[in-house]
Write a structure and sequence with these properties.
mainly alpha; 14 helices
Length: 341
């Protein structure tokens, strides 16, 4: 699939993805208190961040696209490392819950358990993206959001479990069930694992590659994820709830840049250095023009949108959203180049 076609396909999926996240945001804002939503949003940010950093997604994508290794071999060896790592993270979270009390302890456990499917999904999607299977990649990622919306609607909206804990229960179950299509597409991965011995050289190579990219991922998290954690620490649960609504609108500006990133990933990985640099420069230019214009529009209309979608309780997000929209717009081209290179 070419970059133009792949970008269009990814953009269509991203529009649907943003729509689903918007519905989740509206649902949680209308059913949870601002404080409870702050706890829920912070837990989701933390689990997605840990699941992204600890996964082997960059390594699997690199070894499939750039090194031309067999996808089943890469996936089988990567998942044989990812699964024990997911269990270790879950055990650490359960252990940490003993230092918390009441519902906070259960929130910690659920947040940690949600990290495991994120780690396995991201590792698997790296293989799929390395094969330039843009449609499968988007379906595999979006199904988690779709199921999350369905389960939240039933458990929180209809059955009235209107707490951060209830929302996390629904979200956690959805994340595990979202692995079903990946398991179906990865049948050959299991067949490879059953008929071959583990390739320890390949495993070491993926660990070394992940160690390098992991540093970049940590820096990325510090750039645009640690803010939510700082807000709940410094301004409390209510402040985190307000901030999560503002940042949700601002990050919609990454819609265009993420679409080009997904479509370009395999081409950049397979190409010669000069061609990869040319594609990256072209993507950054196009991203900058579109996203900066969108950022100016969002800064003007965002405050109105916040109140319409999330309610008057989130009116104080108007100030933060203006700042976040402009900052996010300027950061988008850098995020694009980091993701592809």
């Amino acid at each position: 699939m070419g970059i133009a076609t792949g970008s269009l396909v990814s953009l269509i999926f991203r529009v649907g993805d943003v729509f689903m996240w918007t519905l989740i945001g509206v649902l949680t804002a209308r059913t949870l208190s601002v404080e409870e939503r702050g706890v829920y949003a912070t837990a989701i940010v933390l689990t997605s961040a840990v699941g992204g950093i600890s996964s082997f997604s960059s390594a699997t994508g690199y070894f499939v696209s750039n090194q031309k290794r067999d996808a089943a071999e890469v996936a089988a060896n990567a998942l044989s490392m990812a699964l024990p790592l997911a269990l270790i993270i879950a055990a650490i979270g359960i252990g940490a819950s003993f230092f918390a009390t009441g519902s906070d302890a259960r929130v910690v456990v659920l947040a940690t358990l949600t990290t495991a499917p994120a780690l396995l999904r991201n590792t698997s999607l790296g293989v799929i993206l390395g094969q330039n299977s843009v449609v499968k990649y988007n379906i595999g990622g979006d199904i988690a959001v779709i199921l999350g919306l369905v389960f939240l609607s039933i458990w929180v909206g209809i059955l009235d479990h209107r707490t951060a804990l209830g929302a996390l229960q629904a979200w956690c179950l959805a994340q595990y069930l979202s692995l079903a299509p990946i398991a179906y597409w990865g049948r050959s991965w299991l067949a490879w694992a059953l008929s071959h011995r583990p390739n320890f050289d390949l495993m070491r190579g993926m660990v070394r590659f992940s160690a390098v990219t992991g540093v970049g991922s940590i820096v990325g998290i510090l750039n645009y994820r640690v803010d939510q954690l700082l807000v709940i620490r410094l301004d409390g649960k209510e402040g985190a709830g307000i901030y999560s609504s503002a940042i949700a609108v601002a990050e919609g500006l990454w819609l265009f840049s993420s679409a080009i990133t997904l479509a370009s990933f395999a081409r950049v990985g397979r190409g010669e250095p000069f061609e990869a640099a040319r594609l990256t420069a072209t993507g950054i230019r196009h991203t900058f023009l579109v996203v900066v214009c969108g950022g100016l529009s969002a800064a003007l209309l965002g405050p109105i949108l916040i109140e319409v979608l999330f309610g008057h309780a989130y009116a104080s997000a108007s100030g933060p959203i203006r700042i976040l929209c402009l900052g996010t717009a300027l950061f988008a081209p850098r995020a694009w180049s980091t993701s592809t290179t």
